Structure formats: C-alpha cells, structure tokens
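Before going further, learn to read the protein records used in this course. The integers have meaning only within a learned vocabulary of local backbone shapes. The record below shows the convention in full.
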Amino acid sequence: MFKAGDKVRIVRCEDDPRAAGRTGRVLDEIPPGPLTGGRWTVDRIGAFIAPVLCHTHELRRV
C-alpha cells in the first residue's frame, strides 16, 4: 500500500503511457476506491504530463 507523499516509479500506466518509466508522488491520503476504479493518483511526473491514475501493480516505491 502507498500513502500520500510516497515517491513512486511508474512501471507502466494505462491512463497515460507517456508516464511509464518516470517518477512521481502519490496524492491519495486513503486507499483508492470505486471513484478512481481502484487506481492511485500520481502527480509531479513532468512538466507536460498531468496527474495520472495508476493501478497498484503499475507502481514501485522508490
């Protein structure tokens, strides 16, 4: 499980494939639920990439 502020590497991302291989920070303060389809919100990925939604198996803690 992740918590808000955790630095993660995005292994792959169905939401935005450009985010794969980059690092970012988890925004969610609680585990994801039905509103996000069980995906974590990751921000601070890059200047031209908005926050993305990623499944747990698509992320690795840095």
Observations:
- The chain has a mean pLDDT of 96.
- The first strand starts at residue 7 and ends at 10.
- The CA atoms of residues 35 and 53 lie 11 Å apart.
